[in-house]
Amino acid sequence: MRFGDRNPIPLPTTQLSDRVDWNFAETPPEIAAVADADPLDQLRAVNDYVTTTCAYVEDVIDHWKSPTEFFAAKAGDCEDHCVGKYALLRNIGWAAENLGVFAGRDIDGVGHAVLGARIDGDDDIQLLDNRTPIIRPSAQAPWFTPFFGVNEDTSWFYLG
Predict the structure, then answer these.
(1) Domain presence at residue 2
(2) 3-class DSSP state for residue 33?
(3) Distance between CA atoms of residues 92 and 33, nearest Å
(4) In this structure, what DSSP letter does residue 37 have?
(5) CA–CA separation, 98 and 2 (whole Å)
(6) How far apart are CA 54 and CA 40, in angstroms?
(7) Is residue 1 part of a domain?
(8) Distance between CA atoms of 151 and 94, rounded to whole angstroms?
(9) Pair 46, 85: CB distance under 8 Å
(10) What CATH number did the domain enclosing 147 receive?
C-alpha cells in the first residue's frame, strides 16, 4: 500500500501479518450505525470511538493485542489502537486491501503506529492516529516515516 510518496516492497504474509489476531466479533452500536455512511464519516466515527473509549498506555514489551483483548482492557498502545480501529472498519464492510497498520517513527524519532485507510478511488491513504482526532492523507503527514505496514493478507516494507 502506497504511503504518501513512498512505494512499498511486498513481503509474504507469513512475515508479519500472521502474528496478529485480526478478528473481533462485536460491533458497538455507535459503529454499526455508520455502516452505510460516507467512508470519511466512517473513519471519523471509528477514530473518535476508539480514542474516547480506550486509553493510551505504553507497552513494556511490544505485544500487539487482539481486538478482543484491546476492547476488554479499554487500553493499549498505538499499535493496539490501530488493530482495534482496523477490526471495527472490517466489521462495517471495509476490505482488508484498503487497510493497513503502519509502524515507523515520528518526527522526534519515537516509535509510533498509525492506521491507514484507502477510500475507493483515492491514490493516497487516510491516517487515523491515536494522538489526534484529525484524519489526514499520508501525503500531508511528513511527521511520520513508515518502516513497515501490515494487514491480515500481506505485509510490506518501506526503504529510504
Answers:
(1) no
(2) coil
(3) 9
(4) S
(5) 11
(6) 21
(7) no
(8) 12
(9) yes
(10) 3.10.620.30
Residue 15 pLDDT greater than 60, yes or no: no
The total domain count for the chain is 1
Q: Which domain holds residue 135?
A: 9-157
Q: Is residue 3 in some structural domain?
A: no
- 4 within some domain: no
Residue 135: all three cell numbers together: 484524519
Greatest pairwise CA separation for the chain in angstroms: 42
Reported as a pLDDT band with limits 50, 70 and 90, residue 63 is confident
pLDDT one-digit tens code per residue, 95-148? 999 999 999 999 999 999 999 999 988 888 999 999 999 999 999 999 999 998
Rounded to whole angstroms, the Cα distance separating 83 from 104 reads 15
Q: Give me the amino acid identity at 96.
A: A
Task: Compute the C-alpha angle 108/112/117, nearest 5°.
Answer: 125
Range 44-51, long-range pairs (CB < 8 A, 24+ positions): 44/133, 44/135, 46/85, 46/88, 46/89, 46/92, 46/128, 47/85, 47/128, 47/133, 47/135, 48/133, 49/88, 50/81, 50/84, 50/85, 50/88, 50/130, 51/81, 51/130, 51/133
